[in-house]
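Researcher: Structure prediction, please.
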Amino acid sequence: MASVRTRLAVLGSAVALAACAQAPAQLANAAPAAAAASYEWVALGDSYTAGVIPAAGDTFEVPRDGCERTDQSYPQVIDRDLGSLFELTNVSCGAATIEDVTSRAQEPIGRHLPPFSEDPDHPFPPVPPQSEAVGPGTDVITVGVGGNTLGFGDILFQCLQLGSGSGGVGTPCKDEMAGGIPGRLAKVSRDYDQMLTTLHERAPKAKILTVGYPTVVPKDTSKCRYNNWEQFGSITQGDLDWLRQDVLEPLNKAIEKSAGTQDDARFVNLYDSSQDHSVCDTGKWMEGIFTRFPDQPALVHPNARGHRNAADHVTGAMLDVVGVV
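Model: Predicted structure follows.
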């Protein structure tokens, strides 16, 4: 997004010029006070916001709380780009559901994902509902959540199991699980609407940016090789088509529809810009079941390049809603 990068460069120059203009007024032997950021921003969300996997950077919190926020996740990228304008509070957390954002204390799992990985620090103490981080002074909220309420991780695991031994033929996962998807999507919509209502009540003046999910499965699933564990492992091509068309695309539509019911909410589309960068594409922005098989599980999450793309789109939306051009 060249336009966003250009706006950042212009914004950075303006801030620098303003600082230089004020410098003569300061006493020569006095340290200048740090300027307060103009807007309070709270980042909420699940692992697609927090980062979680090594391909999305290093965790930076000591001691760890199990939420696995990484330094290349899009909130942290934006904070480095726009820290003089927005003061970030990042409470996103891997494995969060919509209810964990709205009202429920979450027990973070860290990187404890048996049978794929064990976390020596597991279990972690509960963290408060993420909505408690917003308040009357919050100006901008970004929230990327919904996949865990849908149960995407469970669906993925079931598809791996059901596809094992199939030779890549047929749609065993669709055949087993398709009947339950409409109910899962309906729950996403109900919970999302309630979350937006709660966020509005807690932060009446805040602009809410609902961040959608990027492209995970390509339109051309012939790019995906059966039993390639750095792609989708044992999930069949037919089931990948089903996951894209009937699970993941409707999830984004449900989030976009909920955002459209609120005057203070706006949907940020990451899907279209990432269509040529799926798990199975060259130059991918999404990791597969493993980043490096067999010792680095990723369980289908954005890498640092995917978070950079998300940062560009979310940045543009943030600047728009606060009127910075």
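Model: The radius of gyration is 21 Å.
Researcher: Thanks, that helps.
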